Amino acid sequence: MASVASQVIFKEFCPLYYLLNAIPTKVQKGFRSIVVYLTALDTNGDYIAVGSSIGMLYLYCRHLNQMKKYNFEGKCESITFVKLLSCFDDLVAVGTASGRVAVFQLVSSLPGRNKQLRRFDVAGIHKSSITALAWSPNGMKLFSGDDKGKIVYSALDLDQGICNSSLVLEEPSSIVQLDYNQKVLLVSTLQRTLLFYTEEKSVKQVGTQPRK
């Protein structure tokens, strides 16, 4: 006899006012008052990361109930994508509208973990808006895609404080999603989905028909 499927219960959750109230709705730039828009979001069990239109990353620690802020030096530009990773150290990758990508290695109070905030920059290969980011599970590899179809691979050595980046793939349309596992990068663009084998540097398309 077939078992009866368990009931699906929908539950409504209220807005996270404790988080939203910690993010300003406007900031003052000289004599101008600029409205702050929330432009990117990622979450995991430890953090909630929120990108903004003023180039500020708001990082809320769920365990300590604390909000911290991180930004890019220089020009204020909208953050378009954020990606968290919890491995031996907590990492967050951030992409902007002009193609800047940075990685923040967060401070941890746990013994043996990182005790000083460090930042790694992906040197100017991207020239347009970042639309996707994907981590390897160990935090040593970061893949970034932009709206012109470029995909960049960044190798991070957290112990040495080194980030080496190179262009690995270029598609004719915007990258919309990236996911990485076991030396295979799943890439979705506006036109197709493909598997990129990072060791062999070969491409296998998923399906045969282009997206309309």
UniProtKB/TrEMBL annotation:
InterPro entries: WD40/YVTN_repeat-like_dom_sf, WD40_repeat_dom_sf, WD40_rpt. GO terms for cellular component: cytoplasm. Pfam families: WD40. Gene3D superfamilies: YVTN repeat-like/Quinoprotein amine dehydrogenase. Signal peptide: none annotated. GO terms for biological process: protein exit from endoplasmic reticulum. This is TCPR2 protein. It comes from Smutsornis africanus. The lineage of its organism: Eukaryota, Metazoa, Chordata, Craniata, Vertebrata.
